[in-house]
Each structure stands twice: as C-alpha cells, then as structure tokens.
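Revision sheet: structure tokens.
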Amino acid sequence: MLPAVTSVAAASPQVPQVYSAEPDAEIARFQEHQRTAARPTVADEARTLFSLARSAVLSTKSAAAAFDGFPFGSVVEFAVDAEGRPILATSTLSPHTGDLIADGRCSLTVTAPGFQSLQDARFTLAGKAVQLPDSERAAVRETFLAKYPSAFYVDFGDFRWFRLEEIKGGRFIGGFGRIATISAEDYQAAKPDPISQFAGPVCGHMNADHEGDILAMVKHYTGLSAVKAKMLDLDRLGFNLQVTQQEGEQSFKVRLPFVRPAEDRKAVKDVIVEMTRAARGAAPQQ
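Predicted:
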C-alpha cells in the first residue's frame, strides 16, 4: 500500500507581514528604515566573511581519472593575507592538490558563522591558485599558523603552499534580496570589519540577559513591534537581528544601526548602553 501524499499547498509557509506590498503605517515605517539602515559595503562584508571563516569549500576542475573535467568540491582550511588573497596548505595526498597543479582556476565559498539557512550570508571568490616557491614559504606559513596555531602538519613533506592570484571577483549573498557581484578591485580594496570578531560574546550576552532591551530597541528605532528578537552578529555600524513579530509567524532579519560608528569593543558597549537607555526611556510605562 502506497503512503499518503502530503498536499504541497498545506505546507506553504506563512509570509511575514513585513514583506507586504501594501503595508500598514507601522510596517511602512519599518520598511523605509531598513532601506536606509547603515551597513558595511558588500565588499567589506565579503572580506569580513573571509576573515571570520574557519573553513571553505574549494571548487576545482578535477584532474582525477574518475571525475576528469568535472567540478569537484573539497572542504579546506585557509588563511588570508593583507591583500585579501586566500592561502592554502594542501597535501599531495588530497585530489584537489593535483587539480590545482593541473589547472589553478578555482573558487572558495565561505558562509557566515553559525550559517543555518538561505537567510544567512555567504560569499564565493574566484581566481587562480598558484603554487608558491620556497622563498615565500616562511611568510605564508606565519600567516597560516597565526590562524591555525596547531596546524603542525603544514611542515610535513607532502604539503604544498598555494595562494589565490589573478582574482576575478566574487558573488556575495547577504540573505533574501541582498545579492551583489563584487569586482576584484573592490574586494581587494575592502577591509575586514574591526568589530565582527567580538560578535559572539557580545551577542551571547545580550541574548541571554537583555532580550527585553533588544525588543525595546527594535520598537524605538524601527517602529516595529515584536515578541521575540535575537542578536545574530554585529559590525562597526550596527547589528543584525532575527525577529518574530507575532507568535507562530515566520521570523525575519532586521538591521539595527548604531547611533554612531563603534571602532572598538568598549565603544560597542557604550553605544549599546546608550541605545538601550534611550529605548527604555521612550517605552510606555506599565
């Protein structure tokens, strides 16, 4: 007996009200706020993703007999030099090392920390990987070990060093509706965000101890009423949230800019405290 077929229509997800084409006054204000909310350039976001990522998917043109000529993906560790060029240490035992020696054209794909769905950011950078001479080994080794201090294996005799040269540019997706092609020039001119490295502990503290304050800030600065709000990450210009407007509804991303840029961890604390106090002061008294 064949199993019952579930209706596709019955599984259709509910669209959050904030995506309405004919919004009420509150939603219209929120939509306008999000259109003008300060955020890093997509090139800066891409460079930041590369600086934070602990691994990437390396896509090569396979030189192996079983997959000759087909695209092939491998998970690799990598570091990034001051110019944004990815550095790879790969073993000759790994098929992708032979792929890169035969044809250096490749791409690296990274995702935002904690990536869970297509709402989350990812970036693919394309270029040509070049095997480095012994004269550059010490410099790239130092850069790689600064990120992976326990990577003793890079000194094994079967490891080779590669760097992505002739960068062609990349494709950034920051979530639904935030898509951009980034030129090689813009990527290499961009800088990683100085605050993003503190996102984990700051967001963790706010989510654990100050959800009420986060909700108050959302209401005060965007005009949006919500029942749940979680800080996802932050940068020098503000932070990103996952918000639920009503119980049982789909959640969605919200951008909340700082009232002024924050260039270090203390400045982040100061501006969040200032914004929290302003939101509390504006909230109706119960």
